[in-house]
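Table 4 source record.
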Amino acid sequence: MNDRIRIDFVSDVSCPWCIVGLQSLEDALARLGNQVNAEVHFQPFELNPGMPPEGQDIRVHMSEKYGLTPEQYEQNTEAMRRRGEAVGFTFRMDKRSRIYNTFDAHRLLHWAGLEGRQLSLKHALFKAYFTDGEDPSSRETLEGLAEKVGMDVARAREILSSGEYAKEVRERERYYLEQGINAVPSVIINDHKLIRGAQPSDVFAQALSEIAAVQ
């Protein structure tokens, strides 16, 4: 067995291309099987760190931030829906009407990483927002998701009602910004190889195979 490969997956739970990229990465890892011994670590990135607690209407947000017309927005969401379908993820854009602040979700993910539940919680957060239309900034939603993936809901409530892990999340966010990461998903393999964007699984499989071959 090759030495373990570290994969840092820098992403935001409100980024649709991040779940597409994650599905592709997981597909690549499944296809490679025992050829690659890899461990995925999720790193925080906030697309909208200044988003207020009430969030913002998604169409208004896309118009203000990216200059999208209503027609362009519809085209983008349809392309996203098709890409999600191709990798086995269901986007329900009709249920997603607002963009929310994701900082508390990242704090919870940091804790989940310490508990060995980060991957399960990450998937639960993506599904809650993009498929079920839930608010990932809501403490009630976050507590429910923590419980759903087998974490201690009382401990989740304690973390969310305090500032616990805020410092750690801010430090990680700052670190990746300083490394030139300004868009997500960004996948960093063994602190060296950077793969930007929601690439097809073949791209991830090739990179991982090449790295495993020389370890």
